[in-house]
Amino acid sequence: MSDPRTGTRARALLATVVLCALPFYLDAFWLRVGLFAMAAAVGAVGLGLLTGSAGQLSLGHAFFLAVGAYGYVWLAGEPGPGLPPALALVLAVLLAGAAGGLFSPVAGRVRGIYLGVATLALVFLGHHVLLTADSVTGGFNGRSVPPLTLGGFGFTADDPELAVLGVPFGAEERLWYLGLALLAVTCWTARGILRGRPGRALLALRDSETAAAVMGVHLAGYRSAAFVVSSMYAGLAGVLLALAFRRVVPDYFALALSVDYLAMIVIGGLGSVAGAVAGAVFVTALPLLMTRYADHLPLVAAPGTAGGPVGPTEAARYLYGAAIVLILLFAPDGLRGLARRARARPRRRPATTPPADPAPDQAARVKEHTP
Questions:
Q1: Tens digit of pLDDT for each residue in 224-237?
Q2: CA–CA separation, 346 vs 344, rounded Å?
Q3: Which of helix, strand or coil describes residue 110?
Q4: 61-76 and 113-132 are packed helices; what angle lies between their axes, rounded to 10 degrees?
Q5: Is the pLDDT of residue 1 over 50?
Q6: Composition of the chain by helix, strand, coil, percent to 5
Q7: pLDDT of amino acid 366
Q8: CA-to-CA distance for 58 and 230, rounded, in angstroms?
Q9: Please, which residues bridge with residue 163 across strands?
Q10: What sign for the dihedral angle of Cα 314, 234, 264, 292?
Q11: How does it sit in the bilayer (predicted)?
């Protein structure tokens, strides 16, 4: 029998080759969709560790994305320290982790809906700070995002001009490979956590706190650690989103963004890294696609017009809201579970003919020897 890991590695290699080749064939719109999806996937993987693996409900994910995004903008820009962008990226992720660490004592002692309400307060508090701290955040109008440079190579359209195999590489093409690298590191580290001792402790904590405590799991410690790690993933996602948007505004980091991330991990499958990525792609790409093709969709108004009852963003929310209901009813393990069952479905075996009845003379001889 073939090793199932060989098939998994082959599929991963094929997906990597395809993703690396896409910038040579796609236009800027599709590359931007991919960038937003990859940034969302990084944050969704972090929330999946917290909610899907540790069983901790969080409605404050948007706050930590804002910390990462605005942390990078302030650290790398003016006014601000004006640090090298690569250093500012790392410090922004650490800043989001530090914000999660400040809240971790609450996360370590509160669980369930109570933690959800507590983290909900972070979103409203953070949004108020973003609007009022004009010197740091730029207030309502936000701030432009300093371009990222690594070793003299800039992730902008003309810094320096670059063409690969005759294809000009602008900002979207360059950021595409940066997003792929960050997403790969995110998935690799998250899988390492889940497959190691911390992952087993988090799953035990999610399934039964009593059993986990009996096995020696430090409940408050692992809850706090999961919250900090999830916050750092969210900070990295915030930095990548800021680079993709090129401008950050406070209204983007509102409660609706936290709800979107919960939808991602539920649709993709709780506790699954691949499921979180699939859910992030679905939830992120759907409104963008509906906005682009609104003219061809019934009952959907194009942006800036009144040609339908709902706009594309609202229609997309209705659709993935319906998807959540269907997932909870018919596939609680999400898209990841559906894909796993589709691969494991046994092949149909060829029909076999039933054995023929014994010959008449053989049946007669048996009857003769029967007392």
A1: 999 999 999 999 99
A2: 6
A3: coil
A4: 30
A5: no
A6: 70, 5, 25
A7: 39
A8: 10
A9: 168
A10: positive
A11: Multi-pass membrane protein
**173-211: pLDDT as tens digits:** 889 999 999 999 999 999 999 999 988 998 888 888 888
| Residues pairing with 154 in the sheet | 149
How many domains is the chain partitioned into structurally?
1
Q: Give a yes or no: residue 326 inside a domain.
A: no
> Does residue 227 contact residue 50 with C-beta atoms inside 8 Å?
yes
Q: CA angle 132-135-138, nearest 5°? A: 70
What is the distance between the alpha carbons of residues 236 and 247, in angstroms, rounded to a whole number? 16
CA-CA-CA-CA torsion sign (46, 256, 145, 241): positive
Helix (H) / strand (E) element for 168: namely strand 167-168
DSSP state of 1: -
Q: Which pLDDT tens digit goes with each residue over 166-181?
A: 777 778 888 999 999 9
- Burial class for 369, CB neighbours closer than 10 Å (0-12, 13-18, 19+): exposed
φ, ψ of residue 149 to 5 degrees: the values are -130, 140
Percentage of the chain lying above the pLDDT 70 cut: 89
Sign (positive or negative) of CA dihedral 105, 253, 242, 173: positive
The residue among 191, 224, 247 whose CA lies nearest residue 69 is 247
The most distant pair of C-alpha atoms in the chain lies apart, rounded to whole Å, by: 107
In this structure, is residue 342 part of a structural domain? Answer: no
The answer to the question of residue 157 being in a domain is: yes
The C-alpha angle 255, 256, 261, rounded to 5 degrees, equals 100
| Structural domain of 98 | 18-253
Q: Is residue 218 in some structural domain? A: yes
Strands 247-248 and 143-144: antiparallel
Output the average pLDDT for the chain.
Answer: 85
For tokens 């809201």, the residue is: 321
Q: Given a cut of 70, is residue 307 above it in pLDDT?
A: no
With 0-12 / 13-18 / 19 or more C-beta atoms within 10 angstroms meaning exposed / middle / buried, residue 141 is: exposed
Which pLDDT band, with edges at 50, 70 and 90, does 46 fall under?
A: very high
pLDDT by residue (tens digit) across 48-90?
Answer: 999 988 889 899 999 999 999 999 999 998 888 889 999 999 9
